[in-house]
Design a protein that fits this description.
By secondary structure, the protein is mainly beta. The protein contains 5 helices and 18 strands.
Length: about 400
Amino acid sequence: MSARNSLRVLGIVFLLCGTGVSSEAQVGSVVQWPVKQIGAGMNRALLFAENTQLFRSIARDRDQGSGPKEGLAPLFGGLGDGSGLAGGLQYTKLVAEGWRATVSGRLSTHAYQRYVFSLNKDFGRVRTGPELMWESRPEEDFYGEGSSSAESARSTYGVSGPHAGWITAAKLGPVELRHSLRWDRYDLFAGKDDRFPTTQDTFRPTEVSGGYSNSQFLTNLVGAVLDYRDDPKNPRAGTMVAGSVEFRNGIQQTAASFTTLRLRHYLYLPLSERKAHLFAFRAEALHNMSDDAIPFYLEPTLGGGNSLRGFREYRFRDNDAFLATAEYRYRIWTYMDAVIFGDAGQVYSNLFKDATHTRMQTDYGGGLRVNTPIGLQMNLNIGHSTEGTRFWFKLGAFTW
């Protein structure tokens, strides 16, 4: 990418991020103000990009292979719900014998952090190598466990720790096989969100699964993906199915051991030959098998910009979870879709035993999706549920 194009990209990012917006807001004037300001800023930035043909020139350089394969690259998002706006830098360099070393760091407006060092090499269709990571999530929300938890019981906790492992992936046409063997450590501490009491002060250790003990696990994950989407970064037709089995074995002072089953299915049905508008469907299920108490900070959660968009982040939490989403997407500009959506999901102590007699939480809403050839992706969503209306702005890669 030329220096001129780099400056233009930075200019667009500043235009898009220049308006101060929290990751959620209530309806009324609080919501109307950031929506108006963000919309105006996005319009100016996208019109500038279109008039200067910035996206086309950068995409052409990338497709022709003239862009750098090493060096610095920006990172957007990637720290999860509740982190606020996040970003960082990544540096990649080819080292001896074809090994590729990558160092990255991310930081969010809520002081979430993640630092990663990886070393990998391609052996034909197989990529393998070690990875080291340290992350900190200082403002996680906890409302209690189960489908009947109360919104008024909101509290905050923090968790951090190192992770080290060896990751292998094999790409065989539409099939990708994945395996990782990791050591994970989780250290609990009092949450840093001063607006709410800490979880440790609100709930007794006997009221949370696994109590407040730190934990360490030896984790073995095996997964497979079958991907027939037309464009994995911004799909408009096709389907994808992904499944994994994860074995967590507690080590040292950690008594808990459990197995996690995950299944995801995404389906995209275009309604025109040009795929300008389409239906998109998502279904995800997670089931934990264990005779031990699973630490509450490792349980699946629902709520936030990536799941139930009419509820706060991490609003529901339990042993198992199920989520279904339907979206209608309509292209209103070269790089922008308007979206109408509906979400339904619930958490369970046992998905297979409780799903038939537990009512699911639902929400609905609309928003915008922005996807550019240079990898800059954004989501603007407004979701409504029985607990109010939430506004979400996400800068980073689409999850589906």
